[in-house]
Design a protein that fits this description.
675 residues, alpha/beta, Threonyl-tRNA Synthetase, Chain A, domain 2, Rossmann fold, ten-stranded mixed β-sheet, five-stranded antiparallel β-sheet, 18 strands, 41% helix
């Protein structure tokens, strides 16, 4: 039974329960007649006004002119005032005022009992009063069979015929309709399943219909319908939203389909997963996020880019550290993991429970001092963004759960992980790692990956990134803490951007961005060694006149000697290189020292040679090695392969090498190096 039917039955029951005596019947009739009395009172008042007006102005010519003008003014006013109502009501009001004012003018001038004036009053007055009574009856009477026929027809088509729809709220390009499913018969899950059929019935895209369940009810909520796609228009990046501001202020990276700005609150959003198939606009969205980050004053960026700057190269100069290989990414992950507890200790020592903008400033407040008796004056600690572009390449080279532990502790340390990849599927990333990245910026994806891309309740509410694929570049959903839940299923579109804008940001805001703090830099240096401390020299333009020679793993002493001294044996200095060679003699074709009898280096010298190789690789920034790298220099080491492999095992036991997720590959643990 609908709400209208229930109300009608309740009124009927109230009437039956009323008193049956004369007074009860009279009260009931009077109560029912009250809504219809105003028109009749108006007719009675008009007749009285005609009698009094005739007594006052019956012989006045001037009164005739005034009354006639008043009639025209009142009629025009009624017509003008009815602009905002229906055409029928406007016409009805104007006719009523015109007839009443015309009769009043005639009654005042000629007399209410003269000629046809009384007949017009006795016939026309009741007609006008009854016309308004009929209008009121039609307006208030509810026809249960026809009430909300359009809504009931729509709900019947989608299988929810007994659903009650409330009053629709109409906004520009947006209609919000409250609904209530029948108690005990339906839940919000039923509404979620019917959204595609509702879109079909309304002939709109599936992404144009979504619902917002009432958190306090299992059967109530709101249907939201956006009939026109306002995201078709390309909007170029308008520039930084908070130039020189703090990373605590939300990033503005696009717009929702209702015109609101698309805000990404970094400090609340926890860690971010950016995903989308090729051609979905994921790279441009990443440019928007990175451009906003690099305009803030209290942030430093570590960037892993296996594409070697193809898209993000313009930002390299604004980042504290950039790596472009899977091995480099593995070392950056280890450095991030080591930086988290070091940063937490610094924050704790300075009285911060978690990172905040004040932590990025020089510590001049005694309340945030690491020593007693006053301010410590320590350098501030900027927010750290560790960005792993095309992370599928990184995850293939390392353990797919490598980010899980970092993500659980990083937020309080002021470290924000950004993982960007084309497919966040179960084949690419583990469920534990996916769960550690609660925020997601999801562009068009394969329909099979939608479940990994967005939470199930967001998909149930109408979000459908699989419907876009790469056909609508830039269209996305943002799910993040700090963003209103109803917006999670609301389509949005990031700004159009290009590397030129990123290059402008890198140059214009170079003096605004904070440098890396000593704690984070020192930790990275201890983990990554020359790969981090030599990052400024790794740029190809850093030393344009320097030539590099591969010395095949020689130690520093050997390299320096070969570059500064002659390579000719002193015993051979008297030999003329242009002289003719003597004739051959017997025995010249025999080796003086057979190869299999050449002596091996002693254990000490061989170990020194291996340490020199490690030092050489460190200087190159090559921090991931394995036994095969040592075996390639077995002649330099001067020992057999079995001994070399055993020595690698001893280096692991001594802590000089640390295992990585890849079998047979180890990370070099460098000596302390200044950042």
């Amino acid at each position: 039974m609908s709400v209208h039917e229930q109300d009608s039955e309740r009124r009927h029951e109230d009437q039956l329960n009323g008193s049956s005596n004369a007074s009860g019947v009279g009260a009931y009739l009077f109560h029912r007649a009250k809504p219809h009395l105003p028109p009749w009172l108006g007719v009675g008042g008009l007749g009285l006004a005609g009698v009094l007006g005739h007594l006052q102005w019956g012989d006045s010519a001037g009164a005739g002119v005034g009354l006639t003008a008043s009639s025209f003014i009142l009629t025009g006013t009624a017509w003008w005032a009815g602009k905002s109502t229906t055409a029928q009501r406007r016409l009805h009001s104007a006719v009523t005022v015109a007839a009443g004012s015309a009769w009043l003018t005639a009654a005042c001038l000629a007399g209410p009992a003269t000629g046809p004036v009384p007949d017009l009053y006795l016939m026309g007055g009741p007609v006008l009063a009854l016309s308004w009574n009929i209008r009121a009856v039609l307006r208030r009477t509810v026809d249960p069979a026809g009430a909300d026929s359009g809504d009931k027809g729509l709900m019947e088509k989608v299988g929810l015929a007994r659903t009650v729809l409330g009053t629709a709220k109409v906004e520009p390009n947006k209609v919000t309709v409250p609904y209530a499913l029948p108690a005990g018969e339906g839940t919000n899950d039923d509404m979620a399943k019917t959204l595609p059929r509702i879109a079909s019935a309304l002939d709109v895209p599936t992404t144009a219909v979504r619902y917002r369940p009432d958190p306090d009810s299992a059967r109530k909520g709101e249907l939201v319908i956006v009939p026109e796609d306002k995201l078709k228009e390309v909007v170029w990046w308008p520039g930084p939203s908070a130039p020189g501001g703090s990373i605590a202020e939300p990033l503005v990276i696009g717009r929702y389909d209702d015109g609101r700005d698309l805000h990404l609150p970094v400090l609340e959003a926890l860690h971010l997963l950016i995903m989308g198939v090729t051609g979905s606009g994921k790279t441009e969205g990443a440019l928007d996020v990175l451009a906003e980050i690099l305009t803030r004053r209290d942030v430093a960026v570590w960037l892993s880019d296996p594409k070697r700057g193809q898209d993000l190269g313009e930002a390299f100069g604004a980042c504290d550290w950039v790596v472009d290989s899977p091995d480099g990414a593995a070392v950056m992950i280890e450095a991030t993991a080591a930086a988290v507890p070091a940063r937490q200790k610094w924050l704790g020592d300075h009285g911060y429970r978690s990172w905040c903008p004040d932590a990025a400033r020089t510590q001049t407040d005694p309340a945030h001092s690491c020593r007693t008796g006053g301010a410590c004056g320590c350098a501030g600690m900027p927010f750290l963004v560790t960005w792993f572009e095309e992370a599928a390449n990184t995850l293939r080279a390392v353990d797919d759960d490598v980010f899980t532990g970092i993500a659980q502790e990083a937020r309080s340390a002021g470290v924000w992980l950004v993982i960007s990849m084309q497919r966040a599927s179960g084949y690419q990333i583990s469920t534990d790692t996916r769960a550690s990245l609660p925020a997601s910026l999801c562009f068009g994806v394969d329909e099979r990956d939608a479940g990994f891309a967005l939470p199930s309740d967001v998909l149930d509410a109408g979000a459908n990134p699989g419907a876009w694929g790469n056909k609508k570049p830039g269209y996305c959903y943002l799910v993040a803490r700090g963003v209103d839940d109803p917006l999670w299923s609301t389509p949005s579109r990031t700004f159009r951007n290009d590397p030129v804008a990123l290059g402008w940001v890198t140059r214009e805001f170079a003096t605004v961005r904070a440098g890396i703090d000593p704690v984070t830099a020192g930790t990275a240096a201890r983990v990554a060694g020359q790969l981090y401390t030599g990052r400024d020299q790794s740029h190809p333009d850093a030393h344009p006149n320097t030539t590099h020679t591969d010395h095949s793993g020689m130690g520093p002493e050997e390299t320096d000697m070969n570059e500064t001294t002659s390579l000719v044996d002193p015993h051979d200095l008297h030999i003329d290189p242009d002289a003719e060679l003597p004739d051959t003699e017997d025995g010249d074709d025999f080796s003086l020292v057979p190869p299999d009898t050449r002596p091996e280096l002693d254990t000490h010298d061989a170990r020194v040679a291996m340490e020199q190789l490690l030092a050489h690789w460190e200087r190159e920034g090559r921090m991931i090695v394995g036994p095969r790298d040592f075996l390639a220099h077995s002649d330099t080491i001067g020992r057999k392969p079995t001994w070399i492999k055993n020595q690698v095992r001893e280096m692991r036991a001594a802590g000089r090498l640390v295992e990585t997720a890849e079998t047979g590959r180890y990370r070099i643990v460098p000596a302390l190096t200044p950042a």
